[in-house]
Amino acid sequence: MAAVAAPASGNAPNPTIYVRNLEERIQIDQLKEALTEIFSEYGSIVDLVAKKSLKAKGQAFVVFGDVDAAQRAISEVQGFELFEKPMVLDFAKTNSDATVKRMGNEEEFEAHKRRRLAEKERKQALEALESQKANLKRPGATTDADTAAGGAAARGAKAPRAGGLKSSNPAGAAAVVPDEYLPPNKILFVRDLPEDYDVEALSAIFSRFGGFKEVRMVPGRKGIAFVEYESEEGAIGAKEGTGGMVLGDQGKGVRVTFQRQ
């Protein structure tokens, strides 16, 4: 196979092309049909992904069966006008799910999905933090902690604290990432557990995921626990596999998030 040069972005050559600057007003089915007609000239298309969500509008991913087909398509279709807008093409940053599944085994595919999910959650955490920072800069903006305290801080009074727990926003100025958007790490924080679930019962559940180390209960606090894994990948898999799981007789799903660092 001939050597394939990476484009100016520096993304490594791979069978997946990232297409942007697409006309957003075109229906997804019509867009996919047009892209298929154009790119099928360069090789077998394994998958074509285009979504209508706000963040994904104007973008698509075209997955070829080999890198050479992707390179030819980038070289010859770059700047081609589709619905009166020039397409901008590049290699995707990572291999697509379809490529990994086709070329690797099940274990490699699952590892790829966990890495992709970890990257997605890191981006969500960063976006949530940046959004809160922007809100704090706006005149008259209040944080969640200010609202919860009923504006007591603004009146010079101290808001009461329960059980000696530290305030999540002691100065009223630092943005706090919501629990569901915390970046991945090796430790999970599990809440809303049935009171009769102990270390042994929880270990039986969480040890099903690779790299499990231990469950730690919190003395004097019922319904919560920490679960540690050897790597982020194990914690990510466990979080996805157990979040919302219904335990006990009350029919309430457990909350599983990453531990706040």
Quick structural summary:
33% of the residues lie in helices and 17% in strands.
DSSP, total strands: 10
Give the structural class: alpha+beta
Count of individual helical segments: 7
Globally, the shape reads elongated
Compute the CA-based radius of gyration.
24 Å
Fraction of residues in helices? 25-40%
Task: State the distance separating the first and last CA atoms.
Answer: 47 Å
Strand order within the widest beta sheet: 2-3-1-6
Residue fraction in strands: 15-25%
Low-confidence stretches: 1-6, 143-149, 151-173
Question: What is the mean predicted local confidence, pLDDT?
Answer: 78
SSE run: EHEEHEEEHHHEHEEHE
Biggest pleated sheet? 4 strands, antiparallel
List the helices and strands and how they pair.
Blueprint: E1 16-20, H1 28-39, E2 45-49, E3 59-64, H2 67-77, E4 81-82, E5 85-86, E6 88-91, H3 97-103, H4 106-137, H5 144-148, E7 187-191, H6 199-206, E8 212-217, E9 225-229, H7 232-242, E10 255-258
Q: What descriptors fit this protein?
A:
261 residues, alpha+beta, elongated, four-stranded antiparallel β-sheet, 7 helices
Q: What do these coordinates show?
A:
This protein is an alpha+beta fold and 261 residues long. Helix content is 33%, strand content 17%. A hairpin with a 2-residue loop joins strand 4 and strand 5. The longest helix has 32 residues, at 106-137.
